[in-house]
Amino acid sequence: MRKREDFVPMKTLECRGITLSDKQTKICVPITGTDLEEIKEQAEKIANMNPDVVEWRADFYDVKDNDETEFEQCLKAINDNLKKIPIIYTYRTSNEGGEKSIDVDDYCRLCKYVSEISEKYNVAMIDVELYENKDQKNIGKLLLDIKSTGVKVIGSNHHFEGTPSEKDIFNVLKTMEEAGADICKIAVMPKEKVDVKTLINASKKANKELNAPIITMSMGELGAVTRICTRMTGSVITFGAGVNASAPGQPPCEMVRFLLKASESGKIDCNVALIGFMGTGKTTISNALSRITGFKEVDVDQYIVEKEGMAIKDIFAENGEQYFRNLETQALRDLQEEKETIISCGGGAVLRDENVEILNTGSVIVQLKATPETVFERVKDHTHRPILNNDMSVRHITELMNQREPRYNSVADIQVNVDKGDRVETCYYILKELEKTGHFSVE
Ligand SMILES: O=C1C[C@@](O)(C(=O)O)C[C@@H](O)[C@@H]1O
Ligand SMILES: [Mg+2]
């Protein structure tokens, strides 16, 4: 079962007929057209994708003098084509990773103008870059003016250059709430895996401690899983790409929709055993799949290490490979007693027929496949790969792969290519295949 701690406290906010909730994340698709024609076309296409909310990224729009009537024309065209889907108005400035820089007075004037016509064009929320503008004296007054029209304010802040500390992320969100934002949003860029965890932890804390709902994401391919595991972060909105992505790491809207459902209500009747050559990303995919689905993850080697209280290399040194392989077989047997578990198998685990039989009693075997070139790129700097350390080359990897891969191919129930290295897409593919074979279902 999923761990209760993963579930965040219930929090809701009503915005012109749409209810934001940390229990059921809404999908927002951005419009990124640069002229009225393209904006219209995108609105029409995006309406057919049926997102919960549409964001108009007004900074993509090429317009002279930031003329209010031209902005109004766009909003009208968008609303006409969206047929009731509520709109978020966002002018993302270049300070925060947007397309254009804009005079702060123009920025505020436009926000205010859009708020005044918000009801007419079904604008439910206005994004205000509170953090960069925080020293701007009139920001409190601006927020009050905007909010008096019935539209909600999303305070927003973007870090494209890195991920602030957990404390700093929390403080940004808290400062926004104190400044009067109805919803507090932050987007950060991860450089390492730990940054993704930082964003998740900061979000958990903010969702628990603030009154305002939050929207958070870690950007780029590495962070993309946070756009799905909102079950953990409490983010009330997630962004999926429609015609174009408006920020790095946004998976397509359809993929977000399926994975969100998988995350909120996915049911699986088996364990997932991940196999594949070293460096194909078993640990990485196990982790992403676990964050997305809430299923437990167990690394077989790790399981053995914990059970024996000894490092693998010491077990090998003291008792020999055969002894280790017997422990591995026992571990696989133990693990079939588990349910809803992602089992990362060591590279040699499925070489024994008995192990495959054991896995087949409770698991679907998923093989990650990559070319020797991809594997080389991923492991070339690793120092903990004893088999490769004396000859780290594509040629050597190819040789080893030729020995192992036919066996993997013959025992796998599902094969997935990971050369592109997109975690979220790989998880999507695996869950879709599990759905096809009747092992996985969403409500
Ligand atoms: O603030 C956000 C979040 C975002 O940057 C993202 O990473 O999905 C995309 C923007 O369009 C939106 O305004
Ligand atoms: Mg590993």
Automatic annotation (TrEMBL):
<comment type="subunit">
    <text>Homodimer.</text>
</comment>
<comment type="function">
    <text>Involved in the third step of the chorismate pathway, which leads to the biosynthesis of aromatic amino acids. Catalyzes the cis-dehydration of 3-dehydroquinate (DHQ) and introduces the first double bond of the aromatic ring to yield 3-dehydroshikimate.</text>
</comment>
<dbReference type="InterPro" id="IPR001381">
    <property type="entry name" value="DHquinase_I"/>
</dbReference>
<dbReference type="InterPro" id="IPR023000">
    <property type="entry name" value="Shikimate_kinase_CS"/>
</dbReference>
<dbReference type="GO" id="GO:0008652">
    <property type="term" value="P:amino acid biosynthetic process"/>
</dbReference>
<keyword id="KW-0067">ATP-binding</keyword>
<dbReference type="InterPro" id="IPR050146">
    <property type="entry name" value="Type-I_3-dehydroquinase"/>
</dbReference>
<comment type="pathway">
    <text>Metabolic intermediate biosynthesis; chorismate biosynthesis; chorismate from D-erythrose 4-phosphate and phosphoenolpyruvate: step 5/7.</text>
</comment>
<feature type="binding site">
    <location>
        <position position="227"/>
    </location>
    <ligand>
        <name>3-dehydroquinate</name>
    </ligand>
</feature>
<dbReference type="Pfam" id="PF01202">
    <property type="entry name" value="SKI"/>
</dbReference>
<dbReference type="GO" id="GO:0046279">
    <property type="term" value="P:3,4-dihydroxybenzoate biosynthetic process"/>
</dbReference>
<keyword id="KW-0456">Lyase</keyword>
<feature type="binding site">
    <location>
        <position position="404"/>
    </location>
    <ligand>
        <name>substrate</name>
    </ligand>
</feature>
<dbReference type="InterPro" id="IPR000623">
    <property type="entry name" value="Shikimate_kinase/TSH1"/>
</dbReference>
<keyword id="KW-0704">Schiff base</keyword>
<dbReference type="GO" id="GO:0005737">
    <property type="term" value="C:cytoplasm"/>
</dbReference>
<feature type="binding site">
    <location>
        <position position="250"/>
    </location>
    <ligand>
        <name>3-dehydroquinate</name>
    </ligand>
</feature>
<feature type="binding site">
    <location>
        <position position="246"/>
    </location>
    <ligand>
        <name>3-dehydroquinate</name>
    </ligand>
</feature>
<keyword id="KW-0460">Magnesium</keyword>
<feature type="active site" description="Schiff-base intermediate with substrate">
    <location>
        <position position="185"/>
    </location>
</feature>
<dbReference type="GO" id="GO:0009073">
    <property type="term" value="P:aromatic amino acid family biosynthetic process"/>
</dbReference>
<dbReference type="InterPro" id="IPR027417">
    <property type="entry name" value="P-loop_NTPase"/>
</dbReference>
<feature type="binding site">
    <location>
        <position position="301"/>
    </location>
    <ligand>
        <name>substrate</name>
    </ligand>
</feature>
<feature type="binding site">
    <location>
        <begin position="279"/>
        <end position="284"/>
    </location>
    <ligand>
        <name>ATP</name>
    </ligand>
</feature>
<keyword id="KW-0479">Metal-binding</keyword>
<feature type="binding site">
    <location>
        <position position="385"/>
    </location>
    <ligand>
        <name>ATP</name>
    </ligand>
</feature>
<dbReference type="GO" id="GO:0004765">
    <property type="term" value="F:shikimate kinase activity"/>
</dbReference>
<dbReference type="GO" id="GO:0003855">
    <property type="term" value="F:3-dehydroquinate dehydratase activity"/>
</dbReference>
<feature type="binding site">
    <location>
        <position position="283"/>
    </location>
    <ligand>
        <name>Mg(2+)</name>
    </ligand>
</feature>
<comment type="function">
    <text>Catalyzes the specific phosphorylation of the 3-hydroxyl group of shikimic acid using ATP as a cosubstrate.</text>
</comment>
<keyword id="KW-0057">Aromatic amino acid biosynthesis</keyword>
<feature type="binding site">
    <location>
        <position position="92"/>
    </location>
    <ligand>
        <name>3-dehydroquinate</name>
    </ligand>
</feature>
<protein>
    <recommendedName>
        <fullName>Multifunctional fusion protein</fullName>
        <ecNumber>4.2.1.10</ecNumber>
        <ecNumber>2.7.1.71</ecNumber>
    </recommendedName>
</protein>
<comment type="subunit">
    <text>Monomer.</text>
</comment>
<dbReference type="InterPro" id="IPR013785">
    <property type="entry name" value="Aldolase_TIM"/>
</dbReference>
<keyword id="KW-0028">Amino-acid biosynthesis</keyword>
<keyword id="KW-0547">Nucleotide-binding</keyword>
<keyword id="KW-0963">Cytoplasm</keyword>
<dbReference type="GO" id="GO:0005524">
    <property type="term" value="F:ATP binding"/>
</dbReference>
<keyword id="KW-0418">Kinase</keyword>
<keyword id="KW-0808">Transferase</keyword>
<feature type="binding site">
    <location>
        <begin position="55"/>
        <end position="57"/>
    </location>
    <ligand>
        <name>3-dehydroquinate</name>
    </ligand>
</feature>
